[in-house]
Each structure stands twice: as C-alpha cells, then as structure tokens.
Specification:
Order of helices and strands of chain B: EEHEEHEEEEEE
CATH architecture of chain B: Beta Barrel
Order of helices and strands of chain A: HH
CATH class of chain B: Mainly Beta
CATH topology of chain B: Sortase, Chain: A
Largest sheet of chain B: 8 strands, mixed, barrel
Number of domains of chain A: 1
Shape of chain B: elongated
Helix content of chain B: 10-25%
Oligomer: heterodimer
Structural class of chain B: alpha+beta
Structural class of chain A: mainly alpha
Number of strands of chain A: 0
Number of domains of chain B: 1
Distance between the termini of chain A: 46 Å
Largest interface: A-B, 15 and 26 residues
Strand content of chain A: under 5%
CATH superfamily of chain B: Sortase
Shape of chain A: elongated
Largest sheet of chain A: none
Number of strands of chain B: 10
Strand content of chain B: 25-35%
Number of helices of chain A: 2
Distance between the termini of chain B: 79 Å
Helix content of chain A: over 70%
Radius of gyration of chain B: 32 Å
C-alpha cells in the first residue's frame, strides 16, 4: 500500500518525502478535528456511567 | 527470481528460420495472497498507530486543554472589573445551572472548578467540571451535598481525588457563603452502589442523622472506570461571602 503510493507520487525522493509529510500533517489535522472527537463520542458515551 | 524455465507446452517454443529455438518463460504468477496479507498487515499497523495517537490525545492533550479551559472559566466566573459580572444564583432552578465554585488545595494552589446542577456529561461534567447530584442536599444543608466529576478525560477535575487525606479541606463558594468541608473517609465502590450519596451514607463510619456531609464521587481506576471512588467530607465552617474568601486559600481578595 505505502510502497504503491510512494511509486505513484511524482518527482524525486525529496518531493515525494514532502508530499508524504504534507499528507501525514493533513491526516493529523483531520484526526484532531474530526476522527478523535467522533471516536470520543462513541467510546466514551454517557450510557457507560451509573453513579 | 522468475528466470527462464523449460516449458512442457509446445506452444511456448518458437523456432526461428535459422534453427534457433526460443523458449518462452511463463509469466510470473500474480502473488495475490501475499499482496493481500501485506495490505492487511499495513492496514493493521496504520490503525494501531491511529489508536495510539488517539490514546495520547485523550490521555494528555485533550485532558490538559480541557482542564486549563475549565480552570480559567472557574477563575474568571464572577470576577474582573466587568460591571455586568456574573454572580452565582441564590437558588437552582434548572439543569446545568452554575451555582458555585470549588477549591481543593490538595489538587493544586490554582485548582478551581465551577459546580453546576445535574451530572449529565454534556454540558456539566465535560465542559463545566463538577456536577451536583439532583435531589441531594445543597452546600451547607443538613444531609449530603453530593457531587461528581471526571477522573480522566475531559479535564479530569477529580483526577487527584485519591490523594485526599485526613486534614484536607474542600472549599465551596456560593452566592452568599463559603462552606469549608473537612475530609473524613475514602472508599471504592461498585457503580451500582448509589447508597453512598444517601442523606446519611451508612458506609461512612460514624455517620449520623442530622449531619452535614459532602460526597465527592468519580470513576476509578483512571480510564478503566469499572468502579467508583467516593470521598466523604463533613461541614467544618461557614463564612459569609461578604467577609471574603478564607485566608488559607490566598485568593488575594478575588
């Protein structure tokens, strides 16, 4: 998967690395604002408390 | 890896006019099984990394950010030079209504949280900090003033609740009075053991009818939450709000 993506990316090693870092950065932003709050709501729901 | 091989199939052999024979090697078989396994492995590693990031976010980043927000909200509530400054209400009429502020020196000299009516996660425990169990006594009243807060996650207002020991005091500020409660006892109970917030908690050693108690409850162990940790306190002192905050809090006339 990652190897396939690496080969699909245009440019040399430096450009590919920059693109990968950008994708990781965007993913982290998406995790922080969307995925993690969503997981939070699912995994830590109010129904789990009784007292 | 996939070199020329003799083929048993005659059609794989081409004979040129000069007598040269070309034997065509079979195309390498697509190793779909190995590729699928690789994809599954990489996906599992990716999901594991995301989960590890989530745990880090939940345990450190979110907890710390929410704790700071709740603390600042509590410190700023009713303070400052704002002429429209907010004041705690004298009576509680609805869920999530903020009616007081708690100080626990054992949790830190700057630690403070607002107290609101009800123990709903949203918006009381998650955003405000401390929730008052509906139906239990109000601060200073005869009976049991029972409150709850998160232990871990969403600021973990009662993260350090297990550190409370004999001699510790908890201060509750309301519109007209400061109530000073002194520590009595800590107990770990099942989540279904709701008798701990009874008017006279029988599990509290030496509890008597007519006593003015306070019960702090939270989840334990942190992030596991299979049990509840309960701390009982008893009213020790009542100070008029007009006399200012208790000196030992060092609030500087705040």
């Amino acid at each position: 998967m990652y190897s396939w993506l690496w080969h699909k990316l245009p440019g040399g090693k430096l450009l590919k690395s920059l693109q990968c870092l950008t994708m990781v950065g965007l993913a982290l932003v998406a995790f922080y604002f969307w995925l993690f709050p969503w997981l939070d709501a699912i995994l830590f729901s109010e129904s789990s408390t009784k007292l | 890896m996939f070199g020329l091989q003799k083929s048993t199939n005659p059609s794989d052999v081409t004979e040129l006019p000069d007598g040269t024979r070309i034997i065509w090697a079979p195309l390498p078989k697509k190793r779909t099984g190995r590729q699928a396994l690789l994809a599954v492995g990489e996906t599992a590693i990716t999901l594991g990394l995301i989960l590890a990031l989530f745990v880090g976010y939940k345990a450190f980043l979110q907890d710390s950010l929410v704790a700071d927000t709740q603390n600042q909200k509590a410190q700023g509530f009713g303070g400052g030079a704002d002429q429209h400054k907010l004041r705690f209400p004298s009576q509680v009429h609805k869920q999530a209504q903020i009616f007081g502020r708690m100080y626990v020196p054992r949790f830190g000299s700057k630690w403070t949280r607002l107290i609101a009516e009800g123990t709903r996660w949203h918006p009381v425990l998650n955003e405000i900090g401390i929730g008052h169990y509906v139906g239990t006594s109000m601060p200073g009243e005869v009976g049991n003033f029972a409150v709850a807060a998160h232990r871990g996650g969403f600021g973990g207002a009662f993260k350090e609740i297990h550190r409370l020991v004999a001699g510790d005091k908890v201060y509750v500020e309301t519109r007209n009075y400061w109530y000073v409660y002194k520590y009595l006892q800590t107990k770990i109970v099942d989540p279904t053991d709701t008798s701990v917030i009874d008017r006279v908690p029988l599990e509290l050693t030496g509890s008597v009818s007519g006593g003015k108690y306070m019960t702090m409850t939270s989840c334990t162990p942190i992030f596991v939450n299979t049990h509840r940790i309960v701390v009982w306190l008893e009213l020790d002192q009542v100070i008029k709000a007009s006399d200012g905050p208790p000196r030992e809090l060092n609030l500087g006339g705040n």
